[in-house]
Design brief:
Shape: elongated
Largest sheet: 9 strands, mixed
Number of strands: 13
CATH class of the largest domain: Alpha Beta
Number of helices: 13
Strand order of the largest sheet: 6-5-13-12-11-7-10-9-8
Helix content: 25-40%
Order of helices and strands: HEEHHEEHEEHEHEHHEHHEHEHEEH
């Protein structure tokens, strides 16, 4: 519990469910180490496995070699290693002198539960000092990945139906409502599906009841613009945390979650106001989490082209959408069920992550607790 909020009772991690334990096949790992060593020896290369990292979809073997001269030749052994290991895919890379990283992909991916991710976050930040940290999942090294919405400015999440968008949004909302008070964070939920965000109705973090109609969504955008202008005048360039540290009346972060944002931004009435909010909102504590099935060039691209924000893509149906999202292809080859590419704000390096799964029962448990 935060020292500053002694009267607020945070939802316990006991409300979450350890849906499934991850099993590591140590015999298979040992067998793979021997196969990698013997395959390298067959081509007259000596290598020692100095590190093994087990991720949700792959296992990384870090091989120390005798000299840097042999690295280029070893990197060309992809087909030989893939065949020897009977793997679905093998990727080789070199990031340090005298080492080669070999990522061996399994036929199936390990399940990543929301509970261990939140436990890990609680260990990193036990006193909830970082209010806007969001849970993503595990990278291919098996390490939990988090993102700070304050640094990300905003999030755009894309992917085809059933690929993992809704679960990701639930991860983000649950990360926020389990670690902040209603005085610290307010949520505005705009849900044209009328289904995805309905379970959160009635929690004290909501700035307004969940909005499901386009007319009310337009009104909400106008209301946010009014809040933006007031805060620009109040803060006068100050960071919101700096302001709150000495203010009698503190300003909460406002997190706006929009399902199917393309449906809203095609309306000319909100175009200019929405653009202003994306460009200036994060300066005063207004952040957006937006989803869309397709990052089409004529609708989404104008917004993400010139505004620095974090991006997540799940499986996309066509290569063009992947290029619109990241500038490069790849997202069209992702698997379903939480397989994602994450691009942090200001970064050019894509990170592949297996998203953490939050179950409906976990959401119900936490929401029921907060409604009391």
């Amino acid at each position: 519990m935060s020292v500053e909020n002694k009267n607020w009772e945070y939802p316990s991690l006991d409300l979450l469910i350890n849906t499934k334990k991850e099993d590591y096949n140590f015999e298979q790992i040992q067998s793979s180490i021997i196969i990698i060593r013997d395959t390298l020896r067959a081509f007259n290369y000596q290598g020692i496995i100095i590190e093994v990292s087990v991720g949700p979809s792959s296992t990384r073997y870090v091989v120390e070699v005798e000299d840097n001269d042999s690295i280029k030749e070893i990197l060309n052994l992809k087909s030989e290693l893939q065949m020897a290991l009977a793997a679905t895919n093998v990727e080789l890379s070199n990031s340090k002198p005298k080492t080669v990283e070999i990522d061996v992909y399994k036929g199936e991916r390990s399940f990543v539960s929301f509970l261990p991710a939140m436990k890990n976050l609680s260990e990193i930040d036990p006193y909830h000092k970082r209010k806007l940290v969001l849970t993503l999942g595990k990278n291919k090294l098996g390490k939990f990945v988090f993102a700070d919405l304050k640094n990300a400015h905003h999030f755009l999440i894309t992917g085809s139906t059933g690929s993992g968008k809704s679960v990701c949004v639930n991860n983000f909302i649950m990360s926020l409502i389990m670690r902040t008070t209603p005085e610290e964070v307010k949520l505005m939920l705009l849900d044209s599906t009328r289904v995805e965000l309905a379970p959160y109705n009635g929690i004290p973090h909501l700035l307004l009841p969940t909005i499901t109609s386009f007319n009310k969504s337009e009104a909400a955008i106008k209301k946010l613009n009014s809040i933006l202008e007031k805060r620009l005048n109040i803060l006068k360039g100050k960071d919101i945390d700096t302001y709150n540290s000495s203010a009698d009346k503190k300003l909460p972060y406002i997190i706006v979650v929009i399902e199917r944002v393309s449906n809203l931004i095609q309306k000319k009435d909100v175009h200019a106001e929405f653009t202003k909010l994306l460009k200036e909102g994060s300066q005063v504590g207004i952040h957006f989490i937006m989803t869309t099935e397709s990052p089409s060039a004529n609708v989404i691209l104008p917004y993400i082209k010139d505004i620095d924000m974090a991006k997540i893509s799940f499986d996309l149906s066509v290569e063009e959408d992947a290029v619109n999202m990241f500038g490069v292809s790849g997202a069209e080859r992702l698997l379903n069920n939480g397989d994602m590419l994450f691009l942090p704000a200001g970064s050019k390096e894509l990170v592949r992550i297996q998203g953490a799964f939050v179950a409906d029962d976990e959401i119900l448990n936490v929401v029921s607790f907060l409604r009391k």
